[in-house]
Amino acid sequence: MSNASASAVLELRGVTKTYHVKQGLFGTARPLTAVNDVSLSLPRGEVLGLVGESGCGKSTLAKILLGLEAPTAGQVLVDGEEIGAQDRMTLARRIQPIFQDPYSSLNPRKSIFDIVSLPLRVHGIGDRAHWEKEVRSILDIVGLPARVMNTFPSQMSGGQRQRVAIARALIMKPEIVICDEPTSALDVSVQSQILNLLGDLRSEFGLTYLFISHDLAVVEHLATRVAVMYLGRIVEEAGVAGLFDEAAHPYTQALLKSVLTPEPGLGVPDTQLGMAYPNPIDPPSGCHFHPRCPMATELCKTTAPRPVETPGGRVECHLHDPQSPMHNPKAA
Amino acid sequence: MTQLDTQDPILAEITGPTPGQMLRKRVFGHQGLMIGLVVLVILTLVAIFAPLLAPHDPYAQSLMTRMEPPVFLGGDWEHPLGTDHLGRDYLSRLIYGARVSLMIGVIAALISGVIGTAMGVAAGYFGGRVDMVVTFLINVRLAMPVVLVALAVVAILGGSLQVVIVVLGLLLWDRFAVVMRASTLQVRGREYVAAARAIGASTPRVILSEIMPNIANNLIVVVTLEMAHAILLEAALSFLGLGVQPPTPSWGLMVSEGKNMMLFEPWMVLIPGAVLFVLVLAINLMGDGLRDVTAPENRS
């Protein structure tokens, strides 16, 4: 990859994950490519927002980064070292997740102390007095009083639970935090608290975030770069300002139109995407986005676009590829 | 820590009862569960302290006082529940019989619980080939009629308390495997399991400390049901003469020995039948109650 920078703390090279899905009792297994040739580079201290509709492969990508799933092809590099070559313990100290649903991410049978101190206990760091000190300090950092240590998740609200999940992720001081839609299960008023907390923690600990979301407003608030995912592919990647000001890919443009504005009377915006999300087992030919693209041409139905460098990043669309046959039909 | 502000919205809500307190409240508020529990505790104490409680030696025969009726049918207080066809005290035999029934119930449920839980959890957690093998084994086991297999094995190896316990333990694991597999599948997908794995926790640790505590309630319910199942099967095998061998006092054997006299002395069948019924009812009440108090829909 030409854009591999030395300071990239997390780098993905052509990562692909294919599942085999059996349809019916006697059906033959068909491949489902959840993540398709994804290359990303995340410099230290940045926040990369990963956006896309449900089912586009965001969460699968998160599982691969956490070492919970192995990629079918491609490489994931953390600090230049491949993920598969590292043992799980080392990886766990570098990358930690914050999950979407705080009601499912905390074991209901365990006290908050047990949940937050689990990383220390698994890694055999210190003794009980040390764990208590660490848990106390990390709870303080995420804005919870020390007395919650003896309570259980069922006694807490969603926002409090998410703070516990953040405390668990940060107690080992990881370099990278994978936030998989950390606010989508929360009330709007609590969402902003959690987002601000994540922002503060990033500057305090020098964290690098991969922030997965389907909510562009949330991404705009926190991210420094944005990657847009569609059907397992990164269709556009750009700096946050560039992407929000002049989105190149028609899909990004449609997503931006779908952001709810606080203005009353406008109603739910029309994304003009029309058709439903395609079945990932049976992806459309050519450019995967062409059935829903308002600017699709005959070429889009047959030929997949190649990634093109743009001033702010990268885009996969014939419209922006000067070499595409679309712009010089004679060469086609 | 700095002084905590009680007006802080973050602190305001952490005041509810702990899960343990809520469980205790539900347990003591559940009538069926309490009745079953009390009966079971009494029967267990009776079984444990049988030598102190039994008025006579359960093996002592007395041909002079054969088939004396119980007190309520005109007998005397020397033998409150009468004597059997060999003149042995019926109450003492009932009390010692509780030992056999409870021991078979507990140990057989324990053996099958270990086998079935190991298989079910492995199938649910690992999926794929392991799941296929376990599901196949469950289906094979379900295709075998328990009583016939037990009869065949006991007929070959000879009937004794140990053989009956082991045979039942090796046969009754199917429900454990089915229930534990389904529960594990359900819990495995929770994000706290993924979080524990992302932390670097080993597979045994994830299974023992993240999954098991969350499926233990289902396990307890199945344990009680299988205990009742094993007790009834022992009684059935003993009745058929292939279970516990005489002169060991067993409720099933007492029914069997009394059946020849059933038309003339019906109490000889009815008394052991009644205590068997009460024991199984108590266990089932407790199992149902446990399912009620631990069911997720009961949680606030």
Q: What is the structure about, briefly put?
A:
The complex is a heterodimer of chains A (332) and B (300). With 332 residues, chain A is of the alpha/beta class.
Unreliable stretches of chain A (pLDDT < 50, length at least 5) are 1-6
Ends distance of chain B: 32 Å
**How many distinct helices of chain A?**
10
Whole-number mean pLDDT of chain B? 84
Q: Please identify which CATH superfamily of the domain at 101-295 in chain B we are dealing with.
A: MetI-like
Strand content of chain B: under 5%
Shape of chain A: globular
| Name of the CATH architecture of chain A | 3-Layer(aba) Sandwich
* Strands of chain A, total number: 12
Strand order of the largest sheet of chain A: 6-7-8-3-9-10-12-11
CATH class of chain A: Alpha Beta
Task: Describe the structure using short key phrases.
heterodimer, A: 332 residues, Rossmann fold, 12 strands, disordered N terminus, B: 300 residues, MetI-like fold, elongated, Oligopep_ABC_C (chain A), transport (chain A)
